[in-house]
Specification:
By secondary structure, the protein is an alpha+beta fold. It contains 13 helices and 7 strands. The two termini are 27 Å apart. This is DUF169 domain-containing protein.
Length: 270
């Protein structure tokens, strides 16, 4: 897909389309069916390597990753699962109601995860708030399509089921995109910065925004997981701004005569 936004913004890193699909291209990067992998790596692979990456219910083993992509939510599949994930999203062992059971969970996870499980992700200050987020505030999807693909935007076509466009951006690029988004929207709040998993910030939250009357952009990579991925594959000053497809199309119409064309912007970008 040819993008007027991209032509004018000239971003350093390639934007990535999130596509729902029943087929998957040959040579798509996927995780092996018995190997854990983070959804964030799929997005990063598409942007930095210029190649399609994707996942399915069989290849995405992470409960959070499946929920983010739209393959159902297992966070509350049982009371035990709900308790475990609520503790993980809050203060870990300190938040757990059954500390003995939670400690056994810590002991069973890979070594690289032990600190995360013990201390928690601190996305919520209490177990109760974490439970409410899981039960009532997490966008929930169980899509009929078999795959969710991360495709470099320039490799997509208009007839694909594109749900969102992820822009990895530096502060200057972010300012331009936010200004452009705000210019086609009513009100003064064109960006949503949701509290939740980083993988949801580039997928499920954008899906939800696409269904609203006034879709907003979604700022992401605010958590430690997201920042680690950005540090290793991009840079510390790079975050994501994900545009739900209805908002992206509005911005595309305006991109020929927007902030990118005024002298002040051209002076900034040199």
């Amino acid at each position: 897909m040819k993008s007027i936004i991209v032509e004018n913004l000239k971003p350093e890193f390639a934007p990535v389309a999130v596509v729902w699909s029943d087929t998957i291209p040959t040579n798509t990067f996927q995780f092996k069916k018995d190997k854990f992998g983070c959804v964030l790596y799929l997005f990063a692979h598409a942007s930095t390597q210029g190649k399609v990456a994707g996942g399915s219910r069989e290849t995405v083993l992470c409960t959070g990753g499946r929920a983010a992509l739209g393959f159902g939510s297992g966070f509350d599949a049982s009371e035990e699962m709900l308790e475990t994930h609520a503790a993980l999203f809050s203060k870990g062992l300190k938040s757990a109601q059954d500390r003995t059971a939670y400690q056994k969970r810590i002991d069973s996870v890979p070594k690289s995860w032990k600190d995360m499980f013990e201390y928690g992700e601190r996305r919520h200050c209490s177990l109760d708030l974490a439970k409410k987020w899981i039960l009532h505030e997490l966008p929930r999807y169980d899509i009929k399509q078999k795959y969710v693909l991360f495709k470099p935007l320039n490799e997509t076509s208009n007839d694909e089921n594109i749900r969102a466009i992820i822009f990895p951006v530096n502060p200057l690029e972010l300012s331009g995109l936010v200004t452009l988004a705000g210019s086609v929207m009513k009100g003064t709040d064109p960006v949503r910065v949701p509290q939740g998993t980083d993988c949801s910030g580039i997928s499920a939250f954008a899906y939800a925004e696409a269904e609203s009357d006034a879709p907003r952009a979604v700022m992401g990579m605010m958590g430690t997981d997201g920042r680690e991925v950005m540090r290793k594959r991009f840079r510390d000053d790079i975050i994501t701004l994900t545009l739900p497809i209805p908002l992206f199309l509005q911005m595309e119409k305006e991109a020929e005569d927007c902030i990118f064309h005024v002298p002040a912007w051209k002076n900034l970008v040199g």
